[in-house]
Structures are given as structure tokens and as C-alpha cells.
Design goal:
It contains twelve helices and eight strands. It is of the alpha/beta class and 293 residues long. The relative contact order is 0.13.
């Protein structure tokens, strides 16, 4: 099994991060982002046509990370593939040595750059998790038997701790666990008290949860997230902190300090942290240093 899954099963505190493939075939910068984090994270998510903006595929970049000795987490969304293609891609991932897969429904096409493209959504995230479980049992969704040994995958999912009301998220989390989710990465968290309250409820499910951190670059970004990103709330005091010293914020130090403080305040109640640097990958080691990891 993967180092990522082994550490989670052992109860270790795990750090993951994330990179986004480019809109083109020049991958040097994308792979360079991963190199900044090579010795500090256990695994690296590769986004799958993030925000419905056409890009190089997640699986190709995951394979290149594997070739470079890094452990990828394949993100897979249901927006663009029917169940035939989803199953085929899962088997292809295993054939390439990729075991970790984060199962997502995916942003709708109208959010992206091909608004007239046809959405598929043959399955949702729960259905995709069930598909992974079915394949691992040696059969496809039509009941056909797979040739040879069943594929080995380590499926995960996403949860939103700051959602209001919270109860639907907890119900969906239970459904995802029943469908086969072995770990969770959360949406961005900025309120440690709310995260502790969420974990007080989620702990009973027994699934490892990685705290999601999106590094704030400025007050404008924080206001945008509050207005347009569902389930994410940046408190007013953090926005004031970003405004207090413009030079410090522009350098990234304020965002790093906020991220590290949130990790320190939450690490006692979760099993890891998932840092989404959004291009500030070179700051991930500094954030981990500030957080004491």
C-alpha cells in the first residue's frame, strides 16, 4: 500500500498539499511546485479540471509525480465522465501505480471556461466511492467480473466543517464512509472553534480527517471567498489582520502566519492537514515550520 494510507492507518499526523495542472503541455512549473514540497509532505493532490477550466489531466501529472518519487492523490470529478469512463480511468490509475483517489462530484460547467460544454454527472461523489468499492471487490458496475487480481485503491472524499447548518454535512459524511471513503480532506477552515465543534461530531465516525488550509493572499481574496465560495467563512478579524500591514501581507507572511496558527489550534483534534497553496507552494515549508510540523 501507499505511504499515505499506511501513515493514516497507523494513526500518524499526515501532511498533504496540492498542485493544479496547467492549461497547456508545459509541465515544468507545475512539477516544480511539487518539488518545493517534496521533503515536507506525504502526498500531493493533483486537481482534476479544477473549477471546470480545461487543463492537462490529473492522471498524467500524478504519473509524472510517481516517476519522480513523490506520492500523488488523484482527484477525480464526475462532471465530465459517465460511469464507463470513470471505471476505466480508475483501472488506468491502478495500472500506473496510483492508489490514492479523492472522489468529487465536481464544479458545474457554467463556472468554467467552456460554459456550453455538456455536463455528465452520471454519478456523484457517493456513487464514485461506491464504484471504487465495487471495483476493489473484483467486479464492475454492470456485475461483470474483472480479470486478474482486484485493483487496490485508497479512496477519500471531501467534507465542509464550516457549513451551516452542519447536520447535512455529517449525514453526507456518513454516506461517504458507508460507500467506502477511507479519509477526508476538508474545505478551507479559518475558524478553529467551529472546526473543533465539527470534529466533536465527526470523531464518532472513526475516519481520518485532514484539516483544509487555503493560504490567504490578501483581504480581497478573503472577501471573494466569503461571497462566492459556499461553506467557507473568513472571520472579520482575519480580514483586518490582512489589512493591518500591506507589505507583510503582500510578501505572504501574514497568510502564512494565519495558516500556521490555524494548524496549531486544530492539530490536536484531527489526523492531518491538507494545505492548498494556490501557487504559493514555495511557502508550504515555511507554514509547516511556523506550525511546528
Amino acid at each position: 500500500m501507499s505511504n499515505f494510507s499506511d501513515k493514516l492507518k497507523a494513526g500518524d499526523f499526515v501532511v498533504s498539499s496540492e498542485i493544479g495542472p496547467p492549461k497547456g503541455v508545459h509541465l515544468e512549473h507545475c512539477l516544480g511546485e511539487a518539488e518545493h514540497m517534496r521533503d515536507r509532505v506525504t502526498a500531493i493532490n493533483v486537481t482534476d479540471i479544477q473549477s471546470a477550466v480545461m487543463r492537462v489531466g490529473s492522471m498524467a501529472v500524478c504519473h509524472m509525480l510517481k516517476e519522480r518519487g513523490m506520492e500523488p492523490i488523484l482527484q477525480m470529478v464526475c462532471r465530465d465522465r459517465n460511469q464507463l469512463a470513470l471505471q476505466s480511468d480508475l483501472l488506468s490509475a491502478v495500472a500506473l501505480g496510483i492508489e490514492n483517489v479523492l472522489c468529487l462530484t465536481g464544479d458545474h460547467n457554467v463556472m468554467g471556461d467552456h460554459k456550453d460544454s455538456k455536463p455528465v454527472f452520471d454519478l456523484d461523489s457517493v456513487g464514485l466511492l461506491e464504484t471504487v468499492t465495487t471495483l476493489m471487490g473484483g467486479h464492475d458496475l454492470a456485475g461483470g467480473e474483472l480479470e486478474g487480481d482486484p485493483p487496490v485503491l485508497f479512496p477519500g472524499a471531501v467534507v465542509t466543517p464550516d457549513a451551516e447548518p452542519l447536520e447535512p454535512q455529517l449525514i453526507k459524511m456518513q454516506k461517504k464512509i458507508k460507500a467506502g471513503a477511507r479519509f477526508f480532506q476538508t474545505q478551507a477552515v479559518y475558524d478553529s472553534k467551529k472546526f473543533h465543534a465539527f470534529m466533536n461530531e465527526a470523531d464518532k465516525f472513526g475516519a481520518p480527517v485532514l484539516l483544509g488550509i487555503v493560504v490567504l493572499k490578501n483581504a480581497g481574496m478573503a472577501n471573494y471567498m466569503n461571497k462566492f465560495v459556499a461553506g467557507v467563512n473568513v472571520p472579520a478579524e482575519l480580514i483586518d489582520e490582512l489589512k493591518a500591514d500591506p507589505d507583510k501581507t503582500k510578501s505572504g507572511e501574514t497568510g502564512c502566519e494565519i495558516a500556521a496558527r490555524t494548524i496549531r489550534e486544530c492539530r490536536d483534534c484531527c489526523q492531518g492537514v491538507h494545505i492548498m497553496p494556490l501557487g504559493w507552494d514555495d511557502k508550504v515549508p515555511h507554514i509547516l515550520d511556523l506550525a511546528g510540523l
